[in-house]
Input
Amino acid sequence: MGADFVQFSLTPLLIGVLAAIACALPGNFLILRRQALIGDAISHVVLPGIVVAFIITGTISAIPMLIGAAGAAVVAVILIEAVKRLGRIEPGAAMGVVFTSMFAGGVLILEQTDTSKVHIDVEHALMGNLESLIWFRAEGWHSLLDPAALATLPHELPRIAIVCAIVVVLTLVFWRWLKIATFDEGFAQVLGIPVSALGFGLVVTAAVAAVAAFDAVGSIIVIAMFICPPAAARLMTNSLEHQIWWSVAFATLSAILGYVFAGYGPLWLGATNAVSAAGMIATASGIILGLACLFGPHRMRIGVGKEPLG
Amino acid sequence: MQPFLNALLLQAGYNATLVAVGAALLGFAAGSSGAFLFLRKRALVSDAVAHATLPGVGIAFILMVSLGGEGRSLIGLLLGSAVTAWIGLLLIEWITRRTRLAEDAAIGAVLGVFFGVGIVLLTIIQSMSAGRQAGLEGFLLGSTAGMLFQDAVVIAVGGSLAVLATWLMRRPMTLVAFDSEYAAAMGYDVRRIDLLMMGLVMAVTVIGLKLVGLILIVAMLIIPAVTARFWTERSNRVIWIAGAVGGASGYLGAAFSASAPALPTGPIIVLVAAGIFVLSLLFAPVRGVLAAVIRHRRFQARVHRRQGLLSLAAQHPIREAYTLRLLRRDGLVRADGVPTQTGRAQAAKIARDERRWDVAREVHQDVGLTGRYDGLTPIEDVFTADEIADFDRRLGPPAAVGGA
Output
């Protein structure tokens, strides 16, 4: 736990944990609203959003990318709605049509433009590169108090920290509305809560979280971060408040376990190279979900489980 | 244009020809089997299946290398991917049946976690034998460069088998897709047929890995089926139209991507399919947007025309501009708003039909007949001439409109 840890592991670990929490919070509501696959669609359209933002601005700075990806998510949601209504197509298929087409468009544009100088290549976009987000100038824990060293922190860290804070604040501010609208949309409408705007805001928030987490874990593994911790939490409790806390705990645990296993696991097994931290975080969250499915105190649907259902 | 035509006519060289034929076959197989998935409303299960192939590819490679093989054999890699895809499928089934999580959560969880495991395995392989990693990343987005003849044969044979299986299984699968409870009552094992349907989808996914990659193969399963739905209301036609759309996009996309550099095959095929989808959404004869707009305009015109004629009959002034324009165009009123001879005659007819309906409602207690009154259906379509004559006897002689 010395200087090496601060230099190589502290920032990726923090980024991983913050990303996992930022995704898990909206994920709770997406799961309860049966919109888990919106997370799937969003995470796929993040790529075209970022590519288009890069082409328009020519830089890979944070703000245009966030705007681009959030814009792509909004476009995707509108297109899905349009396909659903105009073509009278069920939501799953409408989603499948829209996000795969947008993803294909993103890959095509990426291949067409010369992005070799910058680091958005397709593989990083899909797999993430948590390991590369190291803090070069750190020399030990005392660097945390050294302004010169702090200035060289990888800029992904403050970005994900801000996004995570925004997600937390939004969840707290809209807590009552979200809770009512998630469980009883009709009642929420009667109370005068703008239900559809709230749903749209939830999707946009999820999109922003997905973009911020994109640096760390890539665009596909984000889906695991949206779904696994909240789904596992859902099997632990019947109260939404407790579910949120469980999901935050599971998200943190997956990020830490995943990072540690990816970095040190292979060394314990005698191998020399670390494996993908993003992939390992997803694996850890999957194992947690698996355990919750087997042993979670509230895993059963009420009235189901005693007799085998055909 | 010339290179595109060359590729279209299979003149762009050996490899391009292989890819084009393979893509067409794969597209057909994916479209027709995806149609069942779409009709069963489980389109996105295929997304999880596709992502769940990645760990299988990695495991198969590691196994083949550790057994002393070369690790690149396409069949071996595809078998491996089929195994983990199947495990992913069973896990989705298990989670939805045994826990209270909904299917969408199960799909997302399996998709993300299996992909994560696959990425971990890919990084292991990269460090394992640096020179021989065999471009497994190609399975993510497909890579057709340097496709071997035997790879094309695998795609062709696999695609044909998938089409054959679709054809053999079409009856039970259609039944389950439309009404699973009825199918169960008929004695079919719904769960087994569901798994078979998924097995077919999995087979297509695995075959398509090399060509379009695991992220975009979903599009080949979903988009043609959704597109086909616009053109017909009959399930057996949906299957074959979806196959045709898939085959056409595969062929056109492969040809297009061969005609210029930096046009990756998988995304181009998907975008061609998406283009066909958009065209169908807009211009399909009955379900398309344009058809709906035209239908709506016609309905609007009929309502306005009838309201205008009723006002003429009651000698009320018409102020609605659209109604006036419509009546004027049909020669029912003059430019100054005074009804013409035909206008008065038609107004009298409509007003009289209205009174006939009133009588009909008194005489008939049959809501099945009188319930068909919507103001637009001609009374002659609902009642026989004898009945209408009977209504007329009760009404008395017809009256002219406008005092003429």
Remarks:
- Residues 291-395 of chain B form one domain.
